[in-house]
Design brief:
Elements: E1 2-11, E2 14-22, E3 28-32, E4 37-44, E5 50-52, H1 60-65, E6 74-75, E7 81-82, E8 86-89, E9 92-95, E10 104-105, E11 118-122, E12 126-133, E13 144-152, E14 157-166, E15 170-171, E16 175-176, E17 193-196, E18 200-201, E19 215-216, E20 227-228, H2 229-233, H3 240-244, E21 249-253, E22 262-268, E23 274-280, E24 284-288, E25 299-303, E26 322-323, E27 329-339, H4 342-352
Antiparallel strand pairs: 1-2, 2-3, 3-4, 4-5, 6-16, 7-10, 8-9, 11-12, 12-13, 13-14, 14-27, 15-26, 17-20, 17-22, 18-19, 18-21, 21-24, 22-23, 23-27, 24-25
The structure holds beta-D-glucopyranose (BGC).
Length: 353
């Protein structure tokens, strides 16, 4: 295992560095200090051909201009939407920046994705990033300190561990916003097979704010068994749920507990043989089909449920995305990559037919 550092670019006079962790097989991940973004995850297909399976940009200006796509970034303090950009906590009304249809999404312009993080430690397989977000940034209470450790391994496991601590009680629901296409070099991301470990979701209104109901998934959203993403897209105009969001953009409930290292979803390409399992201690996962990017790649974003601050006393909405003053909280997201050879692929196709 080894790590290489280089200057990636400058933004408004500030240097942005890139760190590449390469494993013994030649697979590598590249992370930049702007938003701790995963710029590349380069993995072999079943024939050994290396391909970058996440969407990234070649310079900082493009990352900054395409701000609303959050390419590869850690987003927060609150990933997803908060209705009317306000919530009450401990009897206080907190007002956040409005950045989408009267609501708040993904932490605002001053969110984690636009911070240039410091690198405070390197080993041969891990990078530690740290930053501080000041009290009142985008309306969020408390000075928040964060430490984020990325580790890549020889068996192609990429782990993100985020430790946070704040000098006031605050809302906190960060995620990683990478767009995956395991299918490359075939560009059709909708050929990917997806399985999600939950059969309930949070329906939403035309602004994609949850209505408050928790429902069983209709057939088009049923990923409890593997199916190709494109099978749903083909029928989406007939289904109000997918028509509102112009494709898949749904939060699935996996659990109502914060449990370590739980499997949330599996993405798989029969064409390339690449497979990715997403593990996290988060209770839900947002499956976003890249609807505004011509479905070029898809996001699987572990998180607490969208707008959950407006459902604080409801058991089906637990656990809540809050952290207590001076307590250290840990969040983790792990992507476990593997390769299906020809015989594994045949076995897989037999199990789904
Ligand atoms: C959201 C989408 C949004 C996208 C880019 C996703 O996390 O679910 O609704 O369009 O991020 O901002």
């Amino acid at each position: 295992m080894s790590i290489q550092k280089k200057l990636f670019d400058t933004l408004n006079g500030n240097e942005i560095f890139s760190y590449t962790i390469t494993n013994d097989s030649g697979a590598f991940v590249e992370i930049i200090t702007l938003g701790c973004r995963l710029k590349q995850i380069v993995l072999p297909d079943r024939n050994g051909n290396l391909e970058n399976i996440v969407l990234g940009c070649n310079n900082a200006a493009v990352y900054f201009e395409s701000d609303s796509e959050y390419f590869g970034a850690i987003v927060g303090r609150y990933a997803n939407r908060i209705k009317n950009a306000t919530y009450n906590y401990n009897g206080k009304e907190i007002k956040l920046t409005v950045n989408e249809n009267g609501n708040h999404i993904h932490g605002g312009k001053g969110g984690f994705h636009n911070i240039i993080w410091d690198v405070t430690n390197l080993t041969d397989s891990s990078i530690t990033f740290e930053t501080m977000q000041a009290d009142g940034t985008e309306g969020f209470p408390g000075n928040l300190k964060m430490k984020l450790i990325y580790t890549f391994s020889n068996d192609n496991v990429l782990k993100m561990e985020l430790f946070a601590n704040c000098d006031q009680d605050t809302i906190f629901n960060p995620t990683n916003h990478s767009y995956f296409n395991l299918n490359l070099p075939n560009p059709d991301a909708n050929l990917q097979f997806l399985k999600i470990e939950g059969n309930k979701y949070t329906p939403f209104d035309k602004e994609l704010i949850p209505t408050g109901e928790i429902c069983n998934v209709p057939e088009i959203l049923d990923f409890t068994n593997f199916k190709r993403i494109g099978d749903g897209i083909a029928m989406m105009k007939d289904v109000p749920d997918l028509d509102l969001s112009n494709g898949y953009d749904h939060n699935f409930i996996i659990s109502n507990e914060k449990k370590e290292n739980k499997l949330l979803a599996t993405l798989l390409s029969v064409e390339s043989g690449r497979k990715m399992e997403v593990y996290s201690n988060y209770p839900g996962v947002q499956f976003y089909g890249g609807n505004h990017l011509n479905f070029k790649a898809i996001c699987l974003e572990p998180q607490c449920f969208p707008d959950s601050a407006h459902h604080q006393d409801e058991p089906e909405w637990q656990p809540m995305p809050f952290i207590k003053k001076n307590e250290i909280e840990k969040y983790e997201i792990t992507y476990k990559f593997s390769i299906l050879n020809d015989s594994d692929t045949n076995d897989f196709l037999n199990t789904i037919s």
